[in-house]
Design a protein that fits this description.
six-stranded antiparallel β-sheet; 34% strand; 3 helices; 126 residues; alpha+beta
Amino acid sequence: MSDLPVNLKYAPSHEWVAVEEENSVRVGITNFAQEELGDLVFVELPEIGRKVTANEQCAVVESVKTASDLYSPVSGEIVETNLDLANEPEKINEDPYGTWIFRIKSDDLSELDQLMDADAYQAHIE
């Protein structure tokens, strides 16, 4: 088993989700995703204030090999983006679980029940 953080939730599309205070969640991509993509060269961040629904495409990460869409794990409003990634997208490669991409104020945290825990995500990627 890999070293998946057990405090996170995981989407089938390889985003991780950390629940925070006041119904907000931080979102990043998993180590599996960044390894598959290779060296990241650009991150297209979602617009702050944008309303998204669960499973809606809302951001893009680009590597030297390909581009990959990122999906919102919950419905809500984009309230913050990690602006450091504009100049340093490689931070995701260096520390995928320590580098978040965007934060959403969730309309309904029960949507997180549809996501996987670390064990289920591990089985998903094997």
